[in-house]
Amino acid sequence: MRSKYYFFLLIIFLSSCSKKEEVLQNNLQEYLKVHSNKKLEEVIACAGSEKGNKDKVFIYYYPILRSYEYRYYETENSSVDPNNFSNYTLKNFSSEGVFGDKLSRYIRDLDYEAWGIVTFLTEGRIHKSNPIRLKQKSNPTEYNENISIELSQPESPKFSWNKSRLGEDAIYFQALVNENNKFISGTYTNALCFRYYDTSNVVLNINTGIPPLLNNTIKHTITILGVSEDNWVNSQAEKIF
Q1: Terminal CA-to-CA distance of the chain, rounded, Å?
Q2: pLDDT tens, position by position, 136-169
Q3: Which domains does the chain have, with CATH numbers?
Q4: Which of 32, 53, 162, 183 fits a 20 to 30 Å CA distance from 215?
Q5: Phi first, then psi: what are they for 35, rounded to 5°?
Q6: What pTM did the predictor assign?
Q7: C-alpha gyration radius of the chain
Q8: From CA 59, how far away is CA 72, in angstroms rounded?
Q9: What is the DSSP string of 191-222?
């Protein structure tokens, strides 16, 4: 009889520990502490607002191969210290694939501005994005089609674009998909142009190899994100060619 009693106490203890750990991991600082034995790596992430809707935010991130346990943490407002990770609590929102599922994004209805951070795990590593400043009220993402496409070399077009309205862009992301929404290429540059697939001005890419020459008999879509230093998407330009 006594053994059953101790077994019951053990179950209560283990359940209590599990709940305590779950509560701790709802705070980013505590979550990082739980995984402090893992090597800290980065997550490529940014955020922008929906076209015509200042209350809807998309938090984009690049889920690298064999990553898992994706999490999104957010502060209560934008006035806190973004580098104090105790200010971030876990949020649960739906997500979806974008750019041929090469990137993912959380979908967030938010009537105030804040800071956000994305995390995930890989074997022996914990990955964390830089703080993302959500500016859907003060600087909603500007949508346009202001991309010039030079097709003298149809299999290797050159794309050019303008700075965003406020001119606060730090880097530009170029995503290319075909008419079936199959991902072809994703690159980053500090310049206002990119020739596919010339990497002379590319500072970062998410391609696993060298993309193929474009098939000029089918339609493609090029999307350019102008991203600020605090990882907000100032502008999003998109064009079919």
Answers
A1: 77
A2: 999 999 999 999 999 999 999 999 999 999 899 9
A3: 11-134 (2.60.40.10), 142-240 (2.60.40.10)
A4: 162
A5: -105, 25
A6: 0.89
A7: 21
A8: 9
A9: SSEEETT--TTEEEE--SSPPPPP-TTS-EEE
